[in-house]
Structure formats: C-alpha cells, structure tokens
C-alpha cells in the first residue's frame, strides 16, 4: 500500500498526539525507523490533489515534528510504493540525512515576502525624472499609449522603492539568522527570501518586521511567514530534472 | 479629497497558505525514488497570477492614479513639511489600499480556484474566511465615491 511521506526525522520522535495527516478522513501519522533515522508517513489517499486541507495537513504534520526536534520536510506530494521503499531510502541516505538534520535541529525557517504599494506614487513622481516626464506628456496628450508607458514606469519605480525597503529589513533579519536562502520570484512581489533561525530568535524576527514594517509601509508591503519547517535549508541538492 | 476613516484590519499573516505555497510546493527535500504527484493546477495558477499582476489594466490604473495627483499643490507647500507629508500620505494610502486589495483579491481568488479545483464539496479554509472579512467590512464602511470603485474591484474578484 502506497505511503505519503512528510519528511525525515530522528528515530524515537513519536507522532505528537492528535496530529492528523492528509486525506479525508485524516490518515494516522506513523514514524517507521531505520537506524537513527525515521520517516514521517501516513497512508496515501487514492486521489491526491493540492487541496487546501491537505496542504495545510502536510504543513501541520511537518511543523509538529520540526518543533519537537528536527525534520527534513518533503515537498508536497511525495508518495512511495510502500513502507519498505521508504526504509530502503533511509538506509541509502543515512549519512547525508543525519548531517542535514544536525543543520536544522532546533531551528525554523522564516520567510519574508515584499510587494510594492502605491503609497509612494507622489514621492516617485517628484524624485524620478523619467516618471515625471511621462506624466507631463500623459497630461498634455492623454491617450492609451502614453498612459500605458506612464503606468509601466510607475510600476517599475514602485518596485524599485519596495525592493530597497525590503532589503533594509532583510539585512536586519540576516544578522539574526544562521543562514539565508533566496526564494523563487513570486507574482507581483519584489523580494522572497528565507532565513534559517534558531527557535529562540523567531520572536526577534517578528519584532523586527513589526517595528520596521509600519515605517516602510509607504514603500513596501512586508509579510513574514513562520516559524515554518526548514523547506529551504535541507542542504540536499534536488536530483537533476526535478 | 475624501478621507477614508476605516483602516483595513490585517489578519496576522504568520503563514497563510498563499504566502507559503511556493515553499511547500517547490522547496523541501525531493526523494528521487518516490513518485511526486503532478500538481497541474498549481502550475497554471502561478502563470495566471503573473499575467494578472503585469497586465495593461494595471498600468492604466497606475497612470490614472498618477495623473490625479495634485503635485503643483504639493510642491507649493513644500515649506510646510507636516502638511505636505499628510497630504501626499492620504492620497497615496487611499489609492494603495484599493490597489492592494484588488491585486491581492485577484491573486487570492486564483489561489482559491486552484486549491478548490475538483473539490466542490470542501468548505472554504479558515484562513480564507479570515482574509475575506476585513475586505468586506472595509467596503461597507467606505466613504463617498471610493466605495463605488471598491465595489467594482471586488466584483471582479468573484
């Protein structure tokens, strides 16, 4: 029977009471062990799709284990043919998994995303000669093309302002972090970066964003997510072609 | 200038599903011998969202906001920084709230569509309800001509 895999942890770490896996009804979470390692698994549902409920369950299970020690979280959707296949993989990867677990032990991922805001349009027009010129042109000769050009320049300018503001915050968070990993570009965003943070510094990270966020609110919308399982800091290169 | 009194109440976003989607789906370990379920809906969603954000409609709206700004008045009052800051602040913020909401709303809507794909019987997730609520309240309390444009942008979301 195929099993859904949430991640790799250390042996001896029991599933937290009340934790529910993916599927409807929620599957029971188990931790088959090999040597010093254990996989976090449950029965795989027949039809697995990226439902809200299952994405949430995937993350909740991972976070519960990460909070109890260390976990190498899988991406959503990892399914193995059976439990033997999972244990065989633990045996083969024992060395690298153990090293990666040491790296994330007692740590969480904090993710900062930043998006532009319109608050600074007036400041942008005053400080950016290109935008100011396009605006004058658009007022003198209103039209579709001039409007598109102006809007495009405004968007670019807002993104620049947002990125500069976001970098100020990212610099402070970097000082609190043990490691930093840039994330993929997200739609509409200007910055997406993750920080590997010791559990006792999670609150400090949040305080930084709570303090600086309002000050920078006319330049960037800042969103800090976390504590999260250490998705970006597992230290295992993805196999080619994935 | 219409002053909007209601502040948008932002739910604490310590990890709304949308904000961490890129991590849950594209980060974390990949175990090559395991099958990874194909997540077609999500790929389409990401492309769609990018197109929406960078659309000509957005440019035109930015141009409109930009042209509406009363900069001449602003520059004359440059000797009075407090007044100046207050003015541009309220103009900008009002526009930004509208924009953030319509952008966020559109993207959020797409996420909702994709996550609910083929799953009609499922209740909306808690966090989605939380995120909708302040928007609804803000629109209901909107003052003057602004509420009209809000209702319009909200209509597009659905």
Task: Walk me through this protein's architecture.
- The complex is a heterodimer of chains A (242) and B (158).
- Chain A has helices at residues 52-68, 83-92, 94-104, 121-127, 129-140, 144-176, 202-215, and strands at residues 3-10, 33-34, 37-43, 71-73, 78-80, 107-116, 179-182, 191-198, 220-228.
- Chain A has 242 residues and is an alpha+beta fold.
- Chain A has 2 domains: 3-105; 108-233, no CATH class.
- In chain A, a hairpin with an 8-residue loop joins β7 and β8.
- In chain A, α5 packs antiparallel against α6 and α6 packs antiparallel against α7.
- The model of chain A is unreliable at 237-242 (pLDDT under 50).
- Chain B is mainly alpha-helical.
- Chain B has 7 helices and 1 strand.
- Residues 1-14, 47-52 and 75-158 of chain B have low confidence and may be disordered.
- Chain B has a domain at 25-51 and 92-157.
- The chains are: A alpha+beta (242), B mainly alpha (158).
- β5 (78-80) of chain A pairs antiparallel with β1 of chain B.
Rg calc of chain B: 20 Å
Mean pLDDT of chain A: 91
Low-confidence stretches of chain B: 1-14, 47-52, 75-158
Helix coverage percent of chain A: 40-55%
Strand elements of chain B, count: 1
């Amino acid at each position: 029977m195929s099993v859904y895999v949430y991640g790799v942890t250390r042996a001896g770490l029991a599933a937290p009471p009340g934790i529910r896996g993916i599927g409807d009804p929620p599957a029971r979470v188990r931790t088959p062990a090999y040597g010093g390692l254990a996989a976090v698994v449950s029965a795989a549902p027949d039809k697995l799709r990226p439902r809200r409920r299952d994405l949430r369950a995937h993350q909740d299970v991972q976070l519960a284990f990460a909070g109890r020690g260390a976990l190498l979280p899988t991406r959503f959707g990892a399914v193995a043919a059976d439990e033997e296949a999972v244990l065989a993989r633990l045996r083969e990867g024992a060395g690298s998994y153990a090293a990666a677990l040491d790296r994330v032990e007692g740590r969480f991922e904090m993710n900062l995303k930043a998006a532009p805001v319109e608050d600074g349009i007036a400041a942008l027009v005053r400080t950016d000669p290109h935008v100011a010129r396009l605006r004058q042109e658009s007022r003198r000769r209103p039209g579709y093309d001039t409007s598109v050009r102006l809007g495009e320049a405004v968007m670019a300018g807002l993104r620049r302002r947002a990125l500069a503001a976001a970098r100020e915050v990212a610099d402070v968070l970097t000082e609190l972090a043990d490691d930093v990993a840039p994330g993929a570009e997200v739609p509409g965003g200007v910055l997406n970066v993750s920080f590997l943070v010791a559990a006792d510094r999670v609150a400090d990270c949040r305080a930084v964003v709570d303090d600086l966020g309002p000050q920078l609110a006319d330049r960037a919308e800042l969103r800090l997510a976390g504590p999260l399982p250490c998705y970006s800091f597992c230290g295992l290169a993805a196999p080619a072609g994935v | 200038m219409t002053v909007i009194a209601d502040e948008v109440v932002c739910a604490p976003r310590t990890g709304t599903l949308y904000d961490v989607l890129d991590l849950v789906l594209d980060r974390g370990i990949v175990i090559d011998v395991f099958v990874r379920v194909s997540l077609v809906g999500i790929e389409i969603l990401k492309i769609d969202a990018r197109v929406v954000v960078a659309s000509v409609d957005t440019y035109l709206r930015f141009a409109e906001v930009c042209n509406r700004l009363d900069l001449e008045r602003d520059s004359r009052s440059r000797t009075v920084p407090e007044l100046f800051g207050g003015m541009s602040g309220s103009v900008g913020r009002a526009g930004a709230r509208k924009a953030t909401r319509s952008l966020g709303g559109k993207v959020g809507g797409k996420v909702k569509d994709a996550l609910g794909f083929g799953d009609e019987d499922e209740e909306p997730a808690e966090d989605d309800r939380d995120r909708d609520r302040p928007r609804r309240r803000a629109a209901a309390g909107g003052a003057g001509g602004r509420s009209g444009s809000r209702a319009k942008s909200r209509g597009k979301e659905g």
